[in-house]
Amino acid sequence: MAGLLPVDEALARILGGARRGDTEMVPLDEAGGRVLAADLRATRQQPPFAASAMDGYAVRAADVTEVPVTLKLIGQSAAGHGFAGVVGAGEAVRILTGAPLPQGTDTVVIQENTVRKGDSVEIAETAPHGKNVRRAGLDFDEGDLLLNAGRLLDPAALALAAAANHPTVPLVRRPRVAILATGDELVKPGGSYRPDQIISSNSYGLAEIVRNSGALPVDLGIAEDRLEALSEALDRAISAEADMLVTLGGASVGDHDLVQPALAARGMELDFWKIALRPGKPLMFGRLNGMQILGLPGNPVSSLICAHIFLKPLIRAVLGLPHAPNLRTAVLGSDMGTNDLRQDYVRARVAMDADGTLIATPFAVQDSSMLKFMADADGLIIRKPHAAASKAGSTCTVLMLR
Fold first, then answer.
1. Residues 177/169, Cβ–Cβ less than 8 Å
2. Which pLDDT tens digit goes with each residue over 153-191?
3. Are residues 221 and 229 in contact, defined by beta-carbon separation less than 8 angstroms?
4. Cα gap 220→364, rounded to integer Å
5. CATH classification of 7-21+174-318 is 3.90.550.10, yes or no?
6. Where are the domains of the chain?
7. Strand intervals (E) in 138-189
8. Where does 340-400 show beta strands of DSSP type E?
9. Which one of 92, 219, 235, 317 is least enclosed by Cβ atoms within 10 Å?
10. Pairing verdict, β 23-27 and 168-172
């Protein structure tokens, strides 16, 4: 296995050529979870007027310096229905939360400190200038920088963009990721199959990883182990304007592994093939006319693990987001033996004990064809090449899956 590319170097080479996608304007109600492509500034002031923070009475602070005092009621100010007149000395206006502060007033006395008496109100507590008033522009002023480029539009960010009067926002275009399963042995779920065939499963998990990473999956189906079939599938990826092509299986050098030859015949520039990783040694990466091509192993677990390690960061890079793997420190729940020259990603259950410590317990069987343990795994214990044997209770690093 000499000459295998280390995992970190493989990832660096994959990310090295990634460029942020184009900008597109998207309606705000369709922008949730997307990435902002440009800084967003306020187009208006918020609130646009001085507003009451409480239900009560809008008054002049000068009229309530000595209490109790009785003021004449001359109207009401409600949200969306402000008082149109001017409040003079000895006068007050009934005001509700969020309503504009009437001209001439500068203070709100909360209703609990008042007694209504027909067309007048008795004020029982003093209220200094500006009490219970939200000044105009308290939240933000026109032109203020509200959200930086690269921000994921979460609920609070969406609400802020709406408050700043942005019906559309500039977003990074979501990359289109074409997914191609390969192999004569594969059939789709629910179809008829021969005794020597298996159900194609990888593409379903890969599509969900693509969606969760902020990209758009494009299912190219299953290609037979023929150069013509693989070339036709590549045509479909090009027609779909895919930014990335992810192939599943067929990237090794066996008699029926034709993915590399098919792509090379179309002009793919191969960057690397085979890395020091378990599971996932036969991983391929190249480029074809601006399309990034990631050839993942055919074994279901290997393909999913490689997608977490390489495909998710690549999608994030194209979206303009930093590489941020969800790594946690845990302690081993059982002993682990020595590791060889490949970096190992070991499926494990991860649970928190009563003290808040994460316990990562590897599954006894790590065969890369076994999806059940992958579905049960909370994380992957990362073991460096040539790692020494580790006892239960020792510290480890876990790439969390959920």
1. no
2. 999 999 999 999 999 999 999 999 999 999 999 999 998
3. no
4. 35
5. no
6. 7-21+174-318, 23-46+139-172, 51-134, 327-400
7. 145-147, 168-172, 176-182, 186-187
8. 343-352, 358-362, 379-383, 395-400
9. 235
10. antiparallel
